[in-house]
Design a protein that fits this description.
Helices cover about 10% and strands about 30% of the residues. The chain is mainly β and about 400 residues long. It has three domains: about 1-100, no CATH class; about 105-295, 3 Solenoid (Pectate Lyase C-like); about 310-390, no CATH class. The radius of gyration is 25 Å and the shape is elongated.
């Protein structure tokens, strides 16, 4: 049974016994706990788990040992395993039960192999994604904490997750992929010697939530969004996006007209040959809280040919007009040391000796204020203000 990002089961219930006893103290004398979905009470271990919950909380408890939900999909709304005397009715009204089209169930991935085989008796991550895409209900896909799921089935020009990246499509409900314990599960596309694709592709009107994961090894020699390409809605929580490469934009994440929300996460050590080594936000909405965004690494920048895109909603001190270059000439400067960058009056400062680009939000005051280094041109290209495009 999931409690936030943690799993409570028969194997660890004793570790949490004191906390569980506190639940009982918060309940009334005739308090009840109803556990729907996930077949918590299935089998001998499931029934014993529910019995111990009953003992520790002192509450009357009922739980399901079969699929909960739509009858036509093998489900029902009965709580078959009961400890104590229940007085309450079902938690769902007859109208909700009649209209619910799916079943309450998680998809457990029990192999780290990247396979699609309905007859092998196991469920791979790719198979879980395909299954979740096929139904309109929300799905939770459970991965083993600390395990690495290598994507090895190469392919392109399809958006069904059958080959290459893991596609999340519209109509499949919100899909949550979560590590089952405290340690992150890793999803690895293999880098330059891997499948030559990103890790996740969230299509328009699709929704994905990533919990306690590491996304790495995305590599596209001819496209953008190395780790994740999002045109839908994606939430990234307690996760790391690292070691991905995008051809021009969004080494870690390319948010293309979508919505991305990032919390308690780290986006680092990703690279792109042009813009947004960590995140490139193209006509989308990005909400970032309590997270660390690393420096963009821009390789092979060609002045006069490539463009550095700056969104004024991010670089808020810039007052220059949108378009190519800086209409306020003093807002861009080239220096030869990091110390000079800290005290420059310009808001965008380039150190031509080491290729570092700084956002100098403090102006001539010491340090960079809310800014700092945001990109590194690894070839220390000789850039000018005409190599920038301001948007917003």
């Amino acid at each position: 049974m999931y409690l936030g990002n943690s799993i409570l089961n028969l194997n660890n219930i004793n570790q949490y016994s004191e906390s569980i006893q506190q639940w009982g103290k918060c309940l009334s004398a005739d308090g009840e706990i109803l556990i729907y979905g996930c077949q918590v009470a299935s089998g001998k271990e499931g029934k014993e788990f529910v019995r111990q919950l009953h003992q520790l909380t002192g509450a009357n408890i009922a739980a399901s040992e079969t699929l909960t939900g739509n009858f036509n999909k093998g489900g029902n709304w009965n709580l078959e395993v009961i400890f104590g005397q229940l007085k309450s009715a079902l938690a769902f009204t007859p109208e909700v039960r009649a209209s619910y089209a799916g079943v309450l169930a998680n998809i457990v991935v029990d192999t780290t192999d990247d396979v699609v085989d309905n007859n092998d008796g196991v469920t791979s991550l790719r198979e879980a994604i395909i299954e979740a895409n096929s139904t309109p209900e929300d799905d939770t896909i459970q991965l083993t904490a600390g395990a690495t799921y290598n994507l090895t089935i190469s392919g392109s020009d399809e958006d069904a997750a059958a080959t290459g990246d893991l596609d999340i499509v519209a109509g499949g409900g919100e899909i949550t992929v979560i590590s089952q314990g405290e340690e992150k599960a890793v999803i690895d596309a293999g880098g330059a010697t891997g499948i030559n694709d990103r890790v996740f592709h969230v299509l328009e009107d699709a929704a994905l939530q990533l919990e306690n994961l590491e996304i790495t090894g995305g590599f596209l020699a001819g496209s953008d969004g190395g780790g994740i390409y999002n045109s839908g809605t994606i939430s990234i929580n307690d996760s790391t996006i690292s070691g991905n490469f995008g051809n021009t934009l969004g080494g870690g994440i390319l948010n293309s007209s979508g919505t991305v929300s990032i919390s308690n996460s780290t986006i680092s050590d990703n690279s792109a040959s042009l813009n947004g080594g960590g995140i490139s936000n193209s006509f989308g909405t990005a909400n970032i809280t309590d997270s660390t965004i690393g420096v963009d690494s821009i390789t092979d920048f060609v002045p006069g040919q490539d463009i550095i895109l700056l969104d004024k909603s991010t670089f808020t001190e810039i007052t220059s007009d949108s378009g190519t270059g800086f209409s306020v000439n003093t807002e861009f400067a080239i220096v030869t040391s990091d110390a000079e960058a800290e005290t420059s009056e310009a808001f965008i400062v380039y150190n031509s000796n080491n290729g570092k680009l700084f956002y100098n939000a403090n102006g001539t005051a010491a340090e960079f204020g809310s800014g700092g280094e945001f990109a590194n041109l690894t070839n220390t290209a000789s850039i000018s203000e005409d190599d920038f495009f301001l948007r917003g």
